[in-house]
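FORM 7B: Structural annotation worksheet

SECTION A. Query
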Amino acid sequence: MRLILCAAVICFAVPTHAQQTPTSNPKQDNSNTAIPNAPSSYKPLTAGGKLKIAAFDAVHPLRIAGAAVSAGIAQASDPYPEWGDGGEGYAKRFGAAIADEASGHIFKGFLFPTILRTDPRYFRKASGGAGARIVYAATRVFVTRTDSGHSTFNASEFLGAASSAALSNVYYPHSGSSTNDAISRAGLGVATDMGWNVFKEFWPDIWKKLRHR
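SECTION B. Predicted structure
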C-alpha cells in the first residue's frame, strides 16, 4: 500500500511547484472530520494541541489499516528473515509498522514542530484543477506554516523522518538496521506523507458525493 502511494504521488511532486504556498485564508470544509490535521479555520496550536494531533494521527484507523497491509506485504516479500513466517512473524512486522507510524507522528507532528514553532496540520487548497491540487498537496511535505501563519520550509518533516528512521534501527532485525535501510525508511515515510496529504485534500469532496447519492 505504501509503495503504491509513493509511486502515484511522487510523479506529481515536481520541484517547480515545491515553493507553492497556501492562501492566507485557505478554504476549509467542516465535512472532513474523519481526516486528522485538516482544520476548518486557522488558529495557532499550543504544544499540547500538536501532541493531541500527533497522537490522533498515530491511532487513526486508516493508519492502523495501512500498517496492517504494509506488514502483510513485508510478510510476503520477507525482507527480514530473522522474524520468521506465520502469525509470529506477521505480529513482529505489524508491531514494527505501528512503531514506525507512532514515532513518525511524534517526531514530525509534535516534537520538531514544537521546537521549530511550525504548524503540523495540513491545510487544503480545496479549489482549482485536480492536477494543481495534487501537486499542492504533495509538496506540503516541503512547505509548511509557522505558528504565526507564514510559509516556511518544512524542516520538521525531514528531521522527523530521519529521527524516526534512526530510532527504527533499535527494533528492526540486523538485516534491516543498516544506514541504507534507515535512509530508505525515512524516504518512504516522507513519500507516504505526500500520499496522505493527497488523500486529505480530496476526501471531503469524495465524502460529499457519497453522502448525496
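SECTION C. Observations
The radius of gyration is 17 Å. Residues 179-211 form the longest helix (33 residues).

SECTION D. Sign-off
Analyst initials: ____
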